[in-house]
Automatic annotation (TrEMBL):
The active site is at residue 206. It comes from the Eukaryota. Residues 70-103 have a biased composition (Basic and acidic residues). The chain crosses the membrane at residues 311-329, 341-357. Residues 1-29, 49-103, 160-179 are annotated as: Disordered. Substrate binds at residues 109-114, 272. This is gamma-glutamylcyclotransferase. One of its GO terms (molecular function) is gamma-glutamylcyclotransferase activity. Keywords: Lyase, Membrane, Transmembrane, Transmembrane helix. InterPro entries: G-Glutamylcylcotransferase (IPR017939). Its EC number is 4.3.2.9.
Length: 419
């Protein structure tokens, strides 16, 4: 009996111990969590409490507006937002398609002056031509009859109508033939394919819509040869170019434009000629035409009086020129046109500048359009970099003056104008 009672506890002890084994573990875990929580509360109570700014009282107007509020449907509001986002994306896609269409529309533009030079056309003006081809234009001839600024930039390149069948003009015996008038064939240049936006920029920078206006001319692709054909045989195509016809002095006064007594008298500056000759080399124009360009004599200051005259003339007129240039950039629209009052102001400045030259400076300091002693060859003038930079600014200013001065009186034929 004694053995039986002693064995029962021994047999059931493990079962009791097993049933109670989980309880200490769970109680220990709970105690640890409690202790951890108490420690966190103690640390928070001992630390600095966060301070929040007081919330202002709701305005009475907002409370009154709540009378018109309606229950919000969050799902419907979310759908409305999604519709608005989708609509905006669709508008963006349509706008992108329209831009792409505009990019696909191109213009063939004929260049023959400083725009032949990559530094000017692609660098300064920022034009990105799509393609280009060298051409000859039998109906036009190259001229240098756009009045510039005496002593600095006497004239700039232009084009004039040409009769291919007309005989070459013969100069008077006492008047030496100007080298720049010796070219008797058609106008040689480069036709660039550009976007419409780039062409609008060209018009704005070249004085489009005023002194210049847009015309269409027949162009013929030049063959790969050293000479320019007098009668091109390649098929013609149309290209746009900027044209400023020479006006009679009376017509020029009526149109607020400057027209010199002899449009062929002035010589271009060495800086401006270099842009054209560099461009002809870059575009690989025929050697015959390059030879002609290199033989054009630039305007060169040869006396101390001319040097003094240039310094005084630019000192007097440069502030007015810079003012006109700054105002033009601020006032012109996307087509390069400025208000009428600005056109009148520019015309007055340009006319006053040339009036002071004809009345005072030419008589006192010497010729500011043509080299004194031009009968002799061999005068070459390479401007310093500072002079070239200043004269480049003068070129931009003259384009603005020519642009604004003739703006009010320009009338375009609907079949000629592009923009």
């Amino acid at each position: 009996m004694a053995s039986t009672t002693s064995t029962k506890p021994t047999r059931h002890a493990p079962q009791a111990g097993a049933s109670m084994a989980g309880e200490p573990d769970s109680s220990v875990s709970g105690c640890r969590k409690l202790v951890s929580r108490l420690r966190w509360l103690r640390r928070r109570s001992n630390g600095a409490k966060r301070v929040f700014a007081p919330v202002p009282k709701t305005a009475q107007a907002r409370l009154d507006a709540s009378l018109n509020d309606r229950p919000l449907d969050a799902a419907a509001e979310e759908k409305e937002k999604e519709k608005e986002k989708e609509k905006e994306k669709e508008e963006e896609r349509e706008e992108e398609k329209e831009k792409q269409k505009q990019k696909e529309k191109t213009v063939l533009y004929l260049a023959y002056g400083s725009n032949l030079c990559n530094e000017t056309f692609r660098g300064v003006r920022g034009i990105k031509p799509i393609s280009q081809v060298n051409v000859v234009v039998p109906s036009l001839r190259l001229t240098f009859d756009l009045a510039g600024i005496p002593y600095a930039e006497p004239c700039f390149a232009n084009s004039a109508r040409r009769n291919p069948n007309a005989p070459a003009p013969t100069p008077a015996p006492d008047e030496p033939r100007y080298h720049k008038d010796r070219w008797q064939k058609g106008l040689v240049g480069v036709v660039y394919e550009v976007t419409r936006s780039d062409y609008a920029h060209i018009i704005a920078t070249e004085g489009g819509g005023a002194s210049y206006h847009d015309i269409l001319v027949d162009c013929h692709v030049l063959p790969s040869a050293d000479t320019v054909p007098a009668n091109p045989t390649t098929a013609p195509f149309k290209a746009h170019t900027l044209f400023a016809p020479t006006l009679h002095p009376d017509e020029a006064r009526a149109a607020d434009r400057i027209s010199r007594p002899d449009p062929s008298y002035a010589q271009p500056s060495a800086r401006y000629l270099k842009l054209i000759t560099d461009g002809a080399t870059e575009c690989q124009l025929p050697a015959e035409y390059q030879h002609y360009l290199h033989n054009i004599r630039p305007y060169t200051i040869t006396t101390r009086k001319q040097t003094a005259g240039k310094a005084l003339f630019t000192a007097i007129w440069m502030p007015f020129i810079l003012l006109i240039l700054a105002l033009s950039r601020r006032l012109q629209d996307d087509k390069g046109r400025a208000p009428k009052w600005f056109a009148r102001l520019a015309a007055m400045v340009f006319a006053g500048m040339w009036l002071s030259y004809d009345g005072v400076f030419k008589k006192t300091f010497g010729d500011g359009e043509r080299t004194i002693g031009d009968d002799a060859d061999g005068i070459v003038f390479e401007p310093y970099s500072d002079d070239a930079e200043k004269e480049g600014l003068l070129e931009d200013a003259v384009e603005v003056l020519n642009n604004a001065a003739g703006q009010e009186n320009l009338t375009l034929n609907s079949g000629e104008s592009l923009v």
